[in-house]
């Protein structure tokens, strides 16, 4: 690590991690509200799509556009936060979330599929700000506290796992003439509350105060590092496969004769499983290492697909979704922690944006293909496609760990 980086880290840890802990708690609360957005869109996007789309193969397009918006928004969000700061950027992001919810609700009320899709795309742009909360929590953190800071923020998703599906259940019939529109009014309301929460975020010491004012190394040089490549692959496989299965699961459940309420509750259990382990994932990383925890997550994702292949009862779907959520938590938090090892403080914004663009670009592709594969080959084919990417990611993690051991 460079002299500049060591100087910066020292300034960040004067007086302990008090500022980092405060900001992590604020961002955890914001995650609880902003994290409800994908739950609402995923629970209802395919169902609304089946109702409004003339071509039923496009039923999952609203969910895919959510993920596309998330990918497209990562770089502009990073540029805004680099110029205006995290707090201003997150408040703008929350305002985008309000807009997305309102447009989606109007699209349902007017029975206009394209307008509804525009709303979910904008909701995805909001998600690009929410996803960076985990990195924002590390800005003032010491190296030892960074994995825990990420985990703290991700625990907010545990509350989101309740808020999102319950918003769907309690508000979906709020507007009698437009079923499900009320849930997107709820989406806008939650984003408005999030705007209030992120206003309490405190700025961290600037990079320029303790280090170089340049942007650091060229992005191409950073991205060519083997450890960055392994971190990105682990992140995109963990998140991409989670989205791939999660997008198809509600439609597959309904196709197997299970009611909408069971599908929504399945997503709720899935999201609880996604974020519940965050209470101890950071400590597991500290004890067993980032690579080991990431590998365990990938293994659980493969196990979830194996259960999905073994039956189509409610219990099978729910077990698949729960294990998928836990696997995502270990895989994605581990991969995020690996990314934080790849950059100097002055490089963090552009590297974080590059990582998220690659990860969520793959997520968008996964969700786009999920609906078509479900229609073409059924739930079984969706599950079989999980195993090859997991094996590739595990092989890369094993290779990276051996290289690191030899170097040490």
UniProtKB/TrEMBL annotation:
SUPFAM superfamilies named among the record's database cross-references: MFS general substrate transporter
Keywords of the record:
Membrane, Transmembrane, Transmembrane helix
Recorded superkingdom: Bacteria
The residues the entry assigns to the signal sequence are none
Query: Which segments constitute the Major facilitator superfamily (MFS) profile domain?
Result: 227-408
- Pfam short name (any one): MFS_1
- Asked if the record carries the keyword Oxidoreductase, the reply is no
Identification of the protein by name = MFS transporter
Task: State the species of origin.
Answer: Microvirga terricola
